[in-house]
Structures are given as structure tokens and as C-alpha cells.
Amino acid sequence: MSGRTGGPTPLPEPDPGPGQDPVTGQGPESLSPYRLFRREEWAQLRADTPLTLTIEDIERLQSLNDPISVEEVVAIYLPLSRLLSLYVAATQGLFKATQRFLMAERETKVPYIIGLAGSVAVGKSTTARVLKALLARWPNTPKVDLVTTDGFLLPNAELSRHGAMERKGFPESYDTAALLQFLHDIKAGHKRVTAPLYSHLVYDRVPGEERVVESPDILIVEGLNVLQPARLPRDGTAIPFVSDFFDFSIYLDGHEDDLHRWYVTRFMKLRQTAFRDPRSYFAKYAEVPEAEALKIADHLWTTINLPNLRENILPTRQRASLILAKGASHRIESVALRRL
Questions:
Q1: Which of 6, 39, 240, 319 is 20 to 30 A removed from 186 (C-alpha atoms)?
Q2: What pLDDT, on the 0 to 100 scale, is given for residue 49?
Q3: What pLDDT score was predicted for residue 175?
Q4: Which DSSP state fits 266?
Q5: Is 249 labelled as part of a ligand binding site?
């Protein structure tokens, strides 16, 4: 036993009991929508895929308090890169076949969109950047872009007017209509699509600044709640949501206790770095005593990030095409791939 307590847990150990579903821990394993791989089994699926990143590349791509090694890239992300290359090629083949059927040979190619979800502090940013770098180094060098949903958070002024600053990151704190329009334009093949620019330093949108996405072959969309299903209103008219636009989706998983610890550790490190910038929204936390800072970090986790995880993020895990389950050291211990 690990001794960790409380709350939802990630995937069970990769050796479930007879008849046990490796994702839910219940029911017959043969009926699971996922195929579960131990780390070593998944690593073998790399085949002859070459490592195209240097140690310096990997160090540059990792986020604060989210260590990632060359071995992790080789064991986990190279096989994933190989899988995605096959999926993208198959999707492009289907697109060409549909063009021929419709006699629409001049129709614009549709970008392949990958969604990446998971809790605060689980390491989504590092995963997204590493995956982007690997995919961009395929033969023929596809154009790969990365967008986070942070830019579609409602401005702080608007959240404050509605008393919703402590709900930041919850589904209702996003400009969903703008996010849907952005993804619609990407899928429609528009050559130039813009998104609002977000600053983690000031913890808000940057007025008048935009993030430009121009004709990507592959787009990675990273965010907390990107796998939420569409809402079904009483009149039966479906309202689309972000996940409806994804061709493939990844959920980055971690035990609740580990996520809590990673969040607090990151908060304390930021007190010595970004929080010391006088422009930082969190500059007020840089000078408080360490014991008080620990209490603040615990409070932020317990009152905001943990409820969001339990209510909105974790329930979407089983909608993912692929689940990467992290252990206590940030090392991915198992991979669950949805059966086709």
C-alpha cells in the first residue's frame, strides 16, 4: 500500500485481478474500452522511431517542477509519436478518399487536432511541448502548433464583476463561444485564425494581443476541461463543446495526493522566481513567511483546484483516446489506449 489517502485515484496498477477492468477497477477486463500497457510494454512499441530531441531540447521544454528525462521521452513519447503518425496518415487517407467520392479535389485539408487534458500541476504544459517538438520532426516536417485554452478564460475584470475569481479554471470561467468559434475556423481550414493571448505573469488576458495560428497540419489544444462532453438542453438541441473537434485526445493522470504535493511545491518555487516580479498577480505571496505561504497554497488547492478536479476534470478521463498515468515521481507508469 502506498499510504496515500482520499479522493479519486488514477488508473490502478497495470496488473488487475482476474476479470477486472484496468480503468475502472470493476467488471470484466475483456469488456474494457481500453487496452492497458505497463511502461515497459508501451516502450517496446517505439520500434525504430528515432529520438530527434537533444538533452538540451528536453530541458528547455520542461515546465517548473515537472521533471522529464530522455528515458521518459524514449519510453513514452516516442511510441506515442509513432502511434499519432499512423493515425494522422490514416485520417489524411480518409480525407483524400472522401474528396474523390465528392469530386471535391480542391477542398482544403483539415488539420488534425489533438486534445490534452488533466489537472493543474500534472504536467500538461511539458507534455504538450514535448509532443509538439516530436511531431514537428517527422519526415516531411509537418506544421505543428500548440494552443492552450487559458487565452479563452474570461478577463479578470469580468470574473470579478460576477464574483467568480475563485471559480477561475472552472468550465463557466471560459468564453466558450469564442473557443468554439476558434476550433470551428481551424477545422474549416481557415488559413489564419487568432486566439486571445494570456499572460501567466499577470494572470489575465493581454488586452489587444492575439495568438495567431496559420494553417497547421496538426494542432495540440491543451487545457483543464477540454474533454467535457457537449451539453444536452431540454429541447434536445445539442450544444457542441471543445472535445467535439478533436481527432485524438490524451488525459494526463495523477493521484490526488501527488497532484496536491506537486501544486504546493510549484507554488513555493514560484515564490522565488515569477512571484518576485512586481508585475506578477501573485507578487503579494513572495514576501510572506514560508509557513503562511504553505497554508495559502494548501487553501488554493483545497478550495479551487481540488473541487475543479473532482467535479469537472476527472470525470472526463474516460472520454480520452489515451490515458497516461503518472506515479509519485512524475514518471508515467502505465498507458491505456482506447480500443478502436
A1: 319
A2: 82
A3: 94
A4: H
A5: no
pTM metric for this prediction: 0.88
To the question of whether residue 74 is assigned a binding role by annotation, the answer is no
Q: Is residue 13 part of a domain?
A: no
The answer to whether the annotation marks 70 as part of a ligand binding site is no
CATH number for position 157: 3.40.50.300
Range(s) of the domain holding residue 95: 29-338
Residue 332 DSSP SS3: strand
Q: What is the pLDDT of residue 235?
A: 60
Tens digits of per-residue pLDDT, 215-249? 999 999 999 989 987 665 566 566 678 888 999 99
Residue 57 lies in a domain: yes
Any binding-site annotation on 121? yes
The CA-atom distances, in angstroms, between 158 and each of 35, 166, 196, 203, 277 are 44, 13, 15, 13, 24
**Pairing mode of beta strands 193-199, 218-222:** unpaired
**Is 340 in contact with 33 (CB distance < 8 Å)?**
no
Please identify every stretch of the chain with a pLDDT value under 70, giving residue numbers as ranges: 1-31, 63-65, 105-107, 230-239
230: left (phi over 0), alpha (psi -120 to 50) or beta: beta
Backbone φ, ψ for residue 248 (5° rounding): -150, 145
Determine, yes or no, domain membership for 1.
no
Per-residue cell: 160: 470579478
Please count the other Cβ atoms lying within 10 Å of the Cβ belonging to residue 322.
Answer: 19
Is residue 258 within 8 Å of 326, Cβ to Cβ?
Answer: yes
Say how many domains are in the chain: 1
DSSP result, 146-182: EEEGGGGBPPHHHHHHTT-GGGTTSGGGB-HHHHHHH
**pLDDT value of residue 261:** 97
Does 4 fall in a domain? no
Collapsing DSSP to helix, strand or coil, 94 comes out as helix
* Per-residue model confidence (pLDDT) at position 29: 55
CA-CA distance, 149 to 166, in Å (whole number)?
Answer: 18
